[in-house]
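Weekly modeling sync, notes
Attendees: S.R. (lead), two postdocs, one rotation student

Agenda item 3: backlog of single-chain predictions. S.R. asked that every request posted to the team notebook include the full sequence so nobody has to chase files. The rotation student volunteered to paste the first one in as an example of the format we agreed on. Action items at the bottom.

Example entry:
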Amino acid sequence: MNRMRLLILVAAILAALLAAYLSTGLLRRPAPQVVQPQVQKSDNVDVLVAGTAFAPGQRFGSTGLQWRAWPRDGLAADMITRETMPDAPTQMRDARARVSMIAGEPVLPGKIVKAGEAGFLSSVLPEGMRAVAISITEISSVSGFVLPNDRVDVILTRTTADSLGNKISTGEAVITNAKVLAINQTLGGGTTDATVPEGRTAVLELNPKQAEVLAKVAASGEISLALRALADGGDGKPVLADNYRNPSRATSGPLIIRYGLQRRASGQ
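Predicted structure, as returned to the notebook:
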């Protein structure tokens, strides 16, 4: 029994020594180092984007275009960047969207049309309207003071002859409240000039029926523009005169009342 107890005591002492050794080794072992993950900063570049949604033909204005950070490795070749065109939002404020655009969409050259470029006038026209050009002179355009974005009445003056051969000049409004889109090749919105010199052509915004009537009456007399007051714009739509709403009326002469009798005069 004494020998057995001695063996157990020795085993217990050895176990205690082993435990002490192991615990001492653990305490002396250095604490594991925590590796901080390194965040790779992406290389961004400012790209020109639409600040809001735009419909085709809508003008960008002074706040419609914005810069937005864009990963350089995702940059397309035709994107407009602040590095290459720092004044782009200012330079393109009078440009218009060629196609529909959503907010945040990069502005690409193929999606916009600038003033003076081919297709700009068609982008300005509202849906369903037509641009019609007529010849003007200094007198017929109010001494040159009819400018783009003005509102005018289109007056037709014709010279006819009565049964005795006497010449009679008559004038009447054909279209009222027509918008002037351009004088010569100067459009509204991009000029601050007080006058447009040497106006030879006026471009009016009309609906298809009004454009047809104007083309017919222009061949039968002289067209003049009467400038309307700024406060007399109404709802902004051109109006065809009552006696010209029948398309065949445009080819006949004006109504003449002479000696109490009414008749239509034929244009010369």
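Discussion: group reviewed the output briefly. DSSP finds four helices and 13 strands in the chain.
Action items: rotation student to repeat for the remaining queue; S.R. to check formatting next week.
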